[in-house]
Here is the input.
Amino acid sequence: MWGMVARLEARVGIGDAARQHWYDAQAAIRPREGRPHAVRRSILANALSLIHFDDDADVRDLQRLDQEIGSNQTASLQDEVLAAIDPVPGRPLVTQLVRTLGERAWGKPSRTPGSLTHDDPDLRELCAGAALRLLMVDDGEDDRPLPTLTTEEALLEVFRGGDAGLWRRMVAAALSEPWAGRTEHHLSLLDPDERPGEFQGIQALAGMARRIAEEDERRAVADHIRATIAGTGLTQREFASLVGTSPSRLSTYVTGSVTPSAAMLLRINRMAKRARSSAHGVPDGPA
Here is the structure.
């Protein structure tokens, strides 16, 4: 990771904005020591490199960070290390970082043969995910109302003149109601051939919001099944026999790797109720 720091320091010049940002932000995170501090310095160096220089090597460095510490942690730390020098509510540095990543993911570089993110779809996906996850970080600093978007021009103005604070509120709204049709409405305002970058960006947000919602639902179902079985006092093997499935199949429901059908979930609830009633000598009532 130290290579990221060295690459940034080799490019900053005396008196320029990148140098000032680098030294001011380092001073803010200096009290941290050891590996966590080294990681934060690398995250900071990579973020400022993408903001001020945006070379292909910086995207490769982001890929390395993503692989080593995870995409969600990377986004959280990007926001953290920039926060001390990034005024609210607009967060201009985070705004520029999202713009850089978004351009790599959905802008001209993603559609121009010979560019890094055109020729490497994994890196294009990396930049898309990094931009969206950075906008999913809740800094709680912006209470501006969401704009009402009923025309293409109004939507395009959000892309052109918006900032990270506004974008974060819009992303939060999409995450809170992934099935409400908000993003579909925004997509309907755009011609995907004339506005491919904006269209793909909104499409990617809709897809990620729904994947996150589905993962949350899958975990909730798994938690419910696990607690339901535990409440019967039976082993998983015994309970699997009771609901007419194999222990291995039941295990996939418990871990969340497979979500049971509605009929199976109803059966699990009914049999658990019956098992609890039997254990306490209570007559089995309506399911």
About this structure: The mean pLDDT is 92. Residues 218 and 256 are 6 Å apart (CA to CA). Residues 196-232 form the longest helix (37 residues).
